[in-house]
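Q: I'm building a small set of examples for a reading group on sequence design. Run inverse folding on the following structure and report the sequence directly after it, with nothing in between.
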């Protein structure tokens, strides 16, 4: 690596946000400088695309400032796994020969096979940051995750991640645990769901082993708790968790929690506990957009040993929109049928289960208006009219937002549905996009409406 490559990184860091640098530039590596073109590598195709689209000028300026005589740069993807990865349920060691698949029937079960969970720390070894796709829906949370991995307990402590079911929260928080475990082998890391915590607590009381329970949880270096919303109604468990958290926090031990909503929005959660859990940082993960869904499909397919064509990727990204879990389910169906029949994925995409298929082509703008109006106890005439009453205006903007994001209609087309200028539509869509970042109630409403749209 040339001596001035660090200068390049420093220049880039000064021109982008800290989160952007940690997300996109932490793992880039210099390769060569030939014929006026600097070449460097990045860990995956999504990072490559993001740098080229969002940060091209910043990178060129940084190269010139550092003394590189170049007008452009070239990015290559170094996606060779650094650690053992799971492919079709089989452990693959980098560099080791892989047996060629000869019996498609034998591989059917392995497509959906779950990775074994470590008996010691609860972490799935295949949940890692290098196979977690970063997009606008989660880039801030990933930036915080990287900072925590670099210095557990010192920054963003506690970290509270919240978002809808199937949005990728579990993958991210387990990836943090795996990366910390690898980087600091002596650290005691534990991942549990809140139900497991509750079960351990009840067992310890019933068997008079409360001290063992306290030792297990309060001697940790990193505690990761998932599905925290299910703590509702468990008063004694809340008290014990409160004291466990305080003990860990007082010793600068890292606490990471995930839930489908903020603590203050979980019924019956003690206000003291809710306040403590967000005193570090609370970050949301939102529904991935089309480009991110495409990147997720490609990444998952590659991890399972498939080279999936673009038509299949786009078909799945267009037809599975409500969460990542359903998206992966659609991919698994396609790969399974492809394996069974020995044909390409593009030849079977139309045969995936109609029960889970969610095509925007089956939803009309009028259906969106009708569903939204019914949900808010209004009439379709109200939404399509000119009333400026707050409730009607807000519902109308939600309908505009869904037409834009889910049906992928242009503002001009949406304007023709509402008999309004496209600038009014742009404003309405933008208003919902901004509100949904911080208004959890609105986010829940949009999520519920999406479910109703696809249920038909």
């Amino acid at each position: 690596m040339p001596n001035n490559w660090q200068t390049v990184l420093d220049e880039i860091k000064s021109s982008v946000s800290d989160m952007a640098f940690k997300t996109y530039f932490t793992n880039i590596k210099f390769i060569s400088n030939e014929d006026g073109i600097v070449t460097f590598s990045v860990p995956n195709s999504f990072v490559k695309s993001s740098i080229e689209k969002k940060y091209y000028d910043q990178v060129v300026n940084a190269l010139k400032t550092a003394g590189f005589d170049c007008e452009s740069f070239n990015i290559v993807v170094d996606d060779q796994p650094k650690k053992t990865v799971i492919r079709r349920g089989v452990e693959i060691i980098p560099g080791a020969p892989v047996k060629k698949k000869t019996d498609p029937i034998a591989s059917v079960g392995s497509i959906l096979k779950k990775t074994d969970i470590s008996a010691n720390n609860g972490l799935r070894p295949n949940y890692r940051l290098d196979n977690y796709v970063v997009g606008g829906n989660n880039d801030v949370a990933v930036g915080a995750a990287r900072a925590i991995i670099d210095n557990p307990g010192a920054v963003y402590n506690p970290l509270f991640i919240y978002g809808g079911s199937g949005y990728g929260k579990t993958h991210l928080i387990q990836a943090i645990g795996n990366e910390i475990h690898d980087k600091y082998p002596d650290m005691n890391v534990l991942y549990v769901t809140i139900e497991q915590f509750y079960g351990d607590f009840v067992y310890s009381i019933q068997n008079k082993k409360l001290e063992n329970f306290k030792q297990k949880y309060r001697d940790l270096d990193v505690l990761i708790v998932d599905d925290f919303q299910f703590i509702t109604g468990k008063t004694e468990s809340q008290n014990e968790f409160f004291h466990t958290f305080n003990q860990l926090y007082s010793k600068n031990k890292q606490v990471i929690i995930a839930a489908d909503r903020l603590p203050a929005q979980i019924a019956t959660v003690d206000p003291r506990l809710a306040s403590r859990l967000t005193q570090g940082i609370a970050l949301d993960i939102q529904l991935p957009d089309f480009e991110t869904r495409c990147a997720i499909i490609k990444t998952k397919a590659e991890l399972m040993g498939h080279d999936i064509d673009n038509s299949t990727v786009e078909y799945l990204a267009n037809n599975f929109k409500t969460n990542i879990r359903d998206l992966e389910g659609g991919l698994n169906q396609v790969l399974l049928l492809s394996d069974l029949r020995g044909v390409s994925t593009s030849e079977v995409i139309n045969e995936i289960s109609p029960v889970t298929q969610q095509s925007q082509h089956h939803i009309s703008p009028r259906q969106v208006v009708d569903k939204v109006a019914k949900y808010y106890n209004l009439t379709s005439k109200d939404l399509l009219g000119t009333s400026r009453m707050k409730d009607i205006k807000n519902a109308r903007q939600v309908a505009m937002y869904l037409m834009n994001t889910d049906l992928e209609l242009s503002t001009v087309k949406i304007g023709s549905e509402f008999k309004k200028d496209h600038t009014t539509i742009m404003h309405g869509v933008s208003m919902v996009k901004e509100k949904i970042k911080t208004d959890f109630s609105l986010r829940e409403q949009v999520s519920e409406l999406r479910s109703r749209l696809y249920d038909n």
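The first strand starts at residue 29 and ends at 34.
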